[in-house]
Design a protein that fits this description.
The protein contains 14 helices and 13 strands. It is α/β, with parallel strands linked by helices. It has two domains: 133 residues, Aspartate Aminotransferase, domain 1, CATH 3.90.1150; 221 residues, 3-Layer(aba) Sandwich (Aspartate Aminotransferase, domain 2). The protein has a seven-stranded mixed beta sheet with strand order 2-8-7-6-5-3-4, with helices on both faces. It has a four-stranded antiparallel beta sheet with strand order 9-10-13-12, with helices on one face. Strands 1-11 form a two-stranded parallel ribbon. α2 runs antiparallel to α11, α4 crosses α5 and α13 packs across α14. The longest helix has 25 residues. It is globular.
Length: 382
Amino acid sequence: MTELIFDVPLDELRRRTSMKWQAFDADVLPAWVAEMDCRPAPAVQRVISDFMATGDTGYPAGSAGCAEAFADFAGWRWGWTPSVADTVVVPDVMQGVARALQLLTQPGDHVVINNPVYNCFYGFIPWAERQILEVPLGSDHRLDLAALERAFSGADGVKPTAYLLCNPHNPTGTLHTVEELTAVAELARRYDVAVVSDEIHAPLVAPAAGFVPWLTVDPEGRSVTVTSASKAWNLAGLKAALAIGTPQTAESLRTLPDEVTHAASYLGLIAHRTALTDGRDWLDRATAELEANRSHLHARLESELPMLKAVRGQATYLAWVDCSALGVADPSALLRTRGKVGFSTGANYGSGGDQHVRINFATSREILDEAIDRTVTAVGSR
């Protein structure tokens, strides 16, 4: 029988000192930040152990083969082979996003994002000295093309110079279609809007679901994709990421200073390269378990907490749940104080998110059920 990926017991998880396990009091069960409750893929464990044993812990030479590994992985997974020559190393995805925006826009320019969206967008865009222009997802949690056109054209009063796409979308788990992305690419060209695509969650999409890399719909445009193996293989503590340009943007990417391109961890690059190359079976097993957890979570919420409305996403290991029926200002605070379960606060994901929580279901079935049980208790105790 194949061992489960998500089988780490709670007592072992509680000994971890990463952010997920330090944010709340010990009596709160954390299911918030995007860390997975699993051990690294065996191939990654072995390679890091080998490098440590031999003392090969110096500076990386280029991407240490990570760019080539990602190109091969993308060809295998999505039928897309990005140019290694147009790929540069960045420390992590959000630093890569910020640097790409700095290359493609001017200080003070506006950048479009689709709220609710990854909370770090709200910190890194101002850090890059750009301003945020929110264009909400539609009521169906998909891209609102009409609203994007109004925004790109400046019809709403501000003309943006860039669009930061979350592909696939966090926190809703929306998987953008080729038709949607092609339409966005046409709008970006028409209104001269640069596109930076954050694709950190892309490997977690099951192959049959049909993830669409942004650069497959805009291979020649003013675009940059930033990606990493960190989310799919749970390697956030081993810093590394890649920024991939087009013929229009790659030359600018190659001007990034050493303090950016040399800031990734050597062991991070080695771990990511190994995951992309030798961790594919592990990824497929993890993705299958996550899909089973997604279905289980939705089934229990629909059965036991029908007043909570969860978006049925196709990507990530995160669930976006509307808790407005609870009638409280901050649902995450209610669930944390009364149920002792820690979900992400919806207000952090932009305008309109305040009545929501984001649930991380990348854990064992036992722990997931405990989180749901605590939610049921909290809601019932009101």
